[in-house]
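To illustrate this point, what follows is a protein record of this kind.

___
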Amino acid sequence: MHELLVGAAGAFGGTIGLACLLNAPRRTLLPSSLIGVLGYVLYLLLSLAAGQSMIFSYFLSTVVIAVICEIAARVMRTPTTIFLLSALVPLVPGYSFYRAMLALVEDQGAAAAASGLQAVQIVGAIAVGAAVTTVVFRALGMRWGEQHAARGR
């Protein structure tokens, strides 16, 4: 429980910090931070409590984050990237990359390869989760827009 609370606080701080660095509108700071916390907590619950694989946990967390960001962007009439960029920050595998670089410096090639491969797989899961969600929302949005336009005629 302690790890969950500390992780959530760190996710909130990291998300709001990056949103400020990216000059996101003030009204989007809290929603994007809460979305980032939700995604990180979901990742922790999936990987630790539910025993899911790490890659699947990252992928599903990213999909949930991306869906909520798409909805929030439509509600607040802002681009999705304002929410998505900062909300995905807690999922970035910085520690895995750090371990890979440390192993390289210490001349431990096998450990560097393992950590690097793990980090690349995580980045791939995040990228695929965000891309799939965005494509689905765009396709549904275009279809909805066509139907809405047809009704208006």
